[in-house]
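New to this. Please check this protein:
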Amino acid sequence: MQRTVTIFRKELKDILRDRRTLIMMVLVPMLIMPLLIIGLNKLQSSVMEKAQEKELRIGFLGSDYAPDLMNLFQEQGRMILLLDFPPDSLRPSISGGELDGAVIIPKSFGKSLKEDAQGEVQIVYKGSEGLGVVKDRLIKVIEEYDRLIVTERVERLNLDPNLFDAVTITELDVSSKQEVIGKLVGGFLPYMFVIFSFMGAMYPGIDLGAGEKERGSLETLLSSPATRLEIVLGKLGVVSLAGIASALIAMLGMSLAVRFITDTSPEILDAVMSMLDVKMILLILSLVIPLAVFFAAGVLSISIYARSFKEAQSMISPASILIIIPVAIGLLPGIELSPQTAFIPVLNVSLATKEVLAGTADLLLLLEVYVSLLIFSGLGIWGCVRWFNREETLFRS
């Protein structure tokens, strides 16, 4: 055990002297998370604001059949109504960006209103642009016009306004703020933690395997009194620690980012911060630790097999795709933590983190997740030790 600790301390010193490893392990997660969260929030707010303030070019067909509606659109401001736009070129013009949208009034519209029937209004827009703001702005004006007509009918016919609201809906959401926010962001957070845990373990793992081969220091370490098992456990401890540290730094960066988003409502901020208290962080950390050991064992095994740092990097990089896939599956709606998914590595961490953050975790399923992670991390350590004991692996020519 003493030799393992000595090797761990020696390898940790080497890693902390490596600028590239420190950048990937500390600087990247610390900066990426705040920049990602604050940047996306600012970008979305900016896009929404620009879309709301943009002067829209709207093709308005059939203005003679609904002059009051046309006047209401003109009163809105920031809208240019093109009344004589060719109907045949309407859709191509919206697709090409010449128009932002269109309102089409059929001939029967005025007659329908006079008969106290429903009149049909068609809107045409490009939903893939502007976050649907064009559609919302058009519908807002039409709904206002609809309310004016209904109010006029009620007053003219001397009707009770409640006649049109036969059923009143009272909503009662039994989900707490933490459950709602936890379900929404709970899938995204483990995505970031898993990725940073893998990235944090990748460069130290490559350096302590293939890097030592290139430097010629691996032979010196093998000639020491330490056994192969002690050497592997020492290296594995450093690589695992790097992965855990990256995940923790990413969590710290995220909490700082949430605090600096000024337009976040106090209720949401309180709910998010309650999800990032010491208890929650420890629960998430308990899931990250065995996963980081599993990642470390895989990365170190490949690194030991590779002839050079470059070869190890090219072999490990595609593995990130295999990690992203199960985490991405955890983001899909309807995928929940179950006895089956709780045993799938990486996916179980994603789903369990979502349940933990929402405060709806099932203890038996969480126990299965822990057992699964311990089994896979144990298999990873066992495989790494066996791989390290093979001479043809260590000294592959």
Remarks:
- The beta strands are 56-61, 79-82, 101-104, 122-125.
